[in-house]
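Bit of a strange request maybe. I'm writing a small parser for structure token strings and I need a real example to test against, not something I typed by hand. Could someone generate the tokens for this chain?
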Amino acid sequence: MPKIAFLSSSAPEAVQAKGTLEALYPSVNPSEAEVLIALGGDGFVLETMHSYLNSGIPIYGIHCGSVGFLMNELVPHELLKRLEKAKQTTLYPLEMTVQKNGGETTKALAFNEVSLLRETRQAAKIQIEVDGIVRLRELVCDGILVATPAGSTAYNLSAHGPIIPLDSPLLALTPISAFRPRRWKGALLPETAHVTFTILESQKRPVSAVADFTEIRDVTSVSVRQCKEHHVTLLFDHEHNLDERILREQFLE
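Reply from user aminoacidic:
Good idea to test on real output. This should exercise your parser:
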């Protein structure tokens, strides 16, 4: 039996499930674990991914929250059998490099998406550069985001961006409430793309940048690239792996 550590969000159902599983299976400290069991919703498993980045410990999420796209079903007495048959998926984050008004530079990682959002009543004006070439001189919008395949069903989908199969070497570039050019719906980029956003009129039209849980306000430029230096491994039940979930999501009514 693998050495298992159980982690839970503060949601009552997650705390209760943690107690149930710890009564059935011996547990260890997370630093000694061979498998991390994260009980909660997608937000909690995302937190766990950031907390144990590069640890080499696979994470098996169990749905005990409001949204469970990245989670597995809670079946307490079948946990070991499910772990044995689980499919491994390695995810690489996006690295966001932000320059603020005043010149300060900050970096952050995102497994779902990097999003730029207007801070005031006025629309943002953003220039988009891909691999050193200006592709859009001025996008007037509420914001824009770059999503990974794993994150394509999150905020990206709500902004009418494309769902990307997990094994696709692509990133989604999706505008949020674009005003001009009106017909621009975004783009699919190779995962090797280096995207740079320059905030136009940044003093008059301030913009914040968000990488998963990290928000930086009053930015002047943001660059985004996939970061292969960092990774995390998720485990999914064989019959409900992430590839199947992404495919199924495209046919929901």
